[in-house]
Amino acid sequence: MNLQSSPQDSLVMGYLALRKAVGIIGFALPFVLAFGRMLQQGPGIEGSISCYYYTGMRNVLVGSLCAIGVFLLSTRGYDWRDEIAGRLACVFAIGVAFLPTNPCMEGVPPHECVAALHRSLAALLFLTLAYFCLALFTKTDPSKIPTRRKLQRNAVYRASGYTILACILVIGIVSLPSVNVLVRRCDPIFWLESTAVVAFGFAWLVKGETILKDDQP
Fold it and tell me: What was the pLDDT predicted at 3?
């Protein structure tokens, strides 16, 4: 017997696909930027993800951030907090995309006001992403008992959220002039930002039921 899917089922599948798309973009972004830049300009890593704005990967960076922003804008959840978080994340992501950091190269004059706004928006974006993981994704329908898979997903969400928060904290520490001069050659900000973005992407892949999906009855 052929079972036809209802319009509601189609909406659910479309929403899951949207979540997967957010996860794939977030998870892949640092790798695509780094390897794409190496293919175009030779070995080396930029000091931060934002510094790829000044490489041949600019369009990839800006396009990915805009796509993530638009996807987050469409986020729907249990209550109004989900929608507000999605709208704020959209504004922060697009702001980071179009208000670049200072040029990561010598001989180019810095734009301190724009760069300061860029850093603020980036910090707010990461905080919002952590909020998604810790406060929104871990919610459970109060009328239902959490399944074993749901509890496993919540553990992933919390690990991702705390990873993002830890990366923000360490970025603040390594950005201090006295610390930065000691670790600058290791490009710590790039690695910390990449870790946070990958954690965000992984959480959204789980949310999109790419992995740890509930067992079908």
Answer: 47
